[in-house]
Amino acid sequence: MTAPAASEAIFSGSEPHQGSRNDTLPMVMGILNVTPDSFSDGGRFVTTSLALEQARRMHAEGAVVIDVGGESTRPGASPVSAEEEIERVIPVIEAIAAELPTRISIDTSKPAVMREAVASGACMINDVRALRQEGAVETAAGLGVSVCLMHMQGEPRTMQADPRYHDVVTEVRDFLVERAGECERAGIPRSRIFIDPGFGFGKNLEHNLRLLAELGALVATNYAVMVGLSRKSMIGTLLDRPLDDRVQGSVALALMAYLNGARLIRVHDVAPTVDALRIAEYVTRFSSFSPGENT
């Protein structure tokens, strides 16, 4: 039997580590928010039928993972109960799992939601709080799925008030390595762990740009790196573009993340991102440069 590709093994844990920049094209994760108040697509996919239609579209466009979220984590967002979050996401996860041959991620911090989502077909937990809620690490380890640990300074309601760091790259890296180590000690294999610097989550424009420029510091930890830069406010600030006119900026940031070593790119606009990454991958085949080598 041949060894599975990185895009397969990171979800099965069958390879020791899939953080290498040169093994496959990065995976693209499609964002599916089933919330009324998410910053970009809130209210668009609040029914199961609309959410399933969007999942079909993203899968057809090349998304390897569909990330389903039932609680907004935009700046200023208010929390929702586990019960309400479950009511929003479980019918959608069940519908996707029944119809599409795709991987499903649950975007949540709550152990109760994690359990219900995995029982319904999810194979990954994407947690903006890096499994810091009580019982979250143990729950994720017991479920035997892949996890993504994100850095966030503060909480969604206050994180953008006045974010400060002495050295943002070092502090974010050290936090994520500590959280990943906690996961490994709980029994989650390194091969199932992604780390995410959390662009826009308690970071100002300079923090975001430094993290992207020095993404290699995270790649060098030997954990697979995920990034979420799609339609972020930094694009609006840099280009003076409203939310519905940030596709080009989002794709440019996705390419930068790929060239700096990211293995999973979380986006709203799947088709243009997949096309751009494929073109970049073709070009790098004919170059002595490999993604991540500038780190």
| Tally of individual helices | 11
Please tell me the CATH architecture by its name: Alpha-Beta Barrel
Q: How would you describe the oligomerization state of the chains in this entry?
A: single chain
Structural class determined from secondary elements:
alpha/beta
Ends distance? 34 Å
Question: Could you spell the SSE succession in H and E letters?
Answer: HEHEHEHEHEHEHHEHHEH
Q: Calculate the mean pLDDT score and round it.
A: 88
State the name of the first-level CATH class. Answer: Alpha Beta
Superfamily (CATH H level) name: Dihydropteroate synthase-like
Count of domain modules: 1
The whole-angstrom Rg is: 18 Å
Low-confidence stretches are 1-7, 14-22
How many beta-strand segments? 8
**Strand order in the largest sheet:** 1-2-3-4-5-6-7-8
Main pleated sheet: 8 strands, parallel, barrel
Q: Helicity level, as a percent range?
A: 40-55%
Q: Could you say what the CATH topology is called? A: TIM Barrel
Determine the strand fraction and express it as a percent band: 5-15%
Shape: globular
List the helices and strands and how they pair.
Elements: H1 6-12, E1 27-33, H2 48-61, E2 65-69, H3 82-99, E3 103-107, H4 111-120, E4 124-127, H5 136-143, E5 146-150, H6 168-186, E6 193-196, H7 205-213, H8 216-219, E7 224-228, H9 233-239, H10 247-259, E8 264-267, H11 270-285
Parallel strand pairs: 1-2, 1-8, 2-3, 3-4, 4-5, 5-6, 6-7, 7-8
Helix pairs in contact: 2-3, 3-4, 4-5, 10-11
